[in-house]
Design goal:
The protein is an alpha+beta fold. It folds into two domains: about 5-55; about 60-85, no CATH class. Helix content is about 40%, strand content about 15%. The chain is built from four helices and three strands, in the order βααββαα. It has helices at about 10-15, 20-30, 45-55, 75-80, and strands at about 5-10, 35, 40-45. Strands 1-3-2 form a three-stranded antiparallel β-sheet. The protein is elongated and about 55 Å long. The model has no long low-confidence stretch (mean pLDDT about 80).
């Protein structure tokens, strides 16, 4: 069985352009998948892909669903629905 390549927190932090501390906190909190080997956290390529998916900001909704989104001002609702046009 082939051995999967793993990467250290420092290597992955360089890819994510974040600090090692922030990444370690995300892993410890269970927000990102990782394996602890001895005293060190290691991430596989699949773990990195899953972490990037967890960070994705994919907010898509139909204009009819915008009314159901809470916490938006009327102007923000129009922006999300694609109905707002700048002057």
């Amino acid at each position: 069985m082939p051995v999967a390549a793993t990467y250290s927190i420092a290597e992955v932090a360089a890819v994510f352009d974040c600090t090692t501390r922030w990444l370690t906190e995300q892993v410890r909190a269970g927000r990102f998948p990782a394996k602890k080997i001895g005293r060190h956290w290691r991430l596989t390529e699949q773990d990195i892909a899953d972490a990037l998916d967890a960070c994705a900001n994919d907010f898509h909704c139909a204009p009819s669903d915008v009314a159901m989104v809470t916490g938006l001002t009327p102007r923000s609702r129009r922006k999300v629905a694609g109905l707002w046009q700048p002057r």
